[in-house]
Amino acid sequence: MARVRIMSRRSVHGHVSGRVQGVGFRYFVCRCAQALKLAGYVRNLRDGRVEFFAQGEAADVVRLIEQIRTGPAHARVSDLQFEDVARVADLTGFSAG
After folding, report:
1. Interatomic CA distance for residues 45 and 35, integer angstroms
2. Is 87 an active-site residue?
3. Which of 5, 34, 56, 73 has the most CB atoms less than 10 A away?
4. Is residue 80 within 8 Å of residue 14, measured between CB atoms?
């Protein structure tokens, strides 16, 4: 009998504060999310924060959040807030806007 592995899905929306603009942060998040095969987006906000939405396998979303918490070499994350949100149907790919 073959084992069936059931994957749980997760969707999160969040904001990152600190030195996260002008340091390659969005592209870092985008590369990480694409490597994890997540769907969603990351973008700068006028108030200096970065906003992100990611959905995919729950374990991969957790991995992305851990990578966001660390950020790229020149970034400094002072605050990371996120919440689980409803899944967006038919969302594919991850983009940096």
Report:
1. 24
2. no
3. 56
4. yes
Distance separating alpha carbons of residues 50 and 16, to the nearest angstrom = 5
Q: Where are the beta strands (DSSP E) in the chain?
A: 9-19, 39-44, 50-57, 76-84, 94-96
Model confidence, pTM: 0.90
pLDDT, one tens digit per residue, over 23-49 is 999 999 999 999 999 999 999 999 999
Tell me the HSE value of 10 on the side-chain side, using a 13 A CA sphere. Answer: 16
Q: How far apart are CA 24 and CA 58, in angstroms?
A: 25
Domains and their CATH numbers in the chain: 9-86 (3.30.70.100)
Candidate list 44, 46, 63, 69, residue with the active-site label? 44
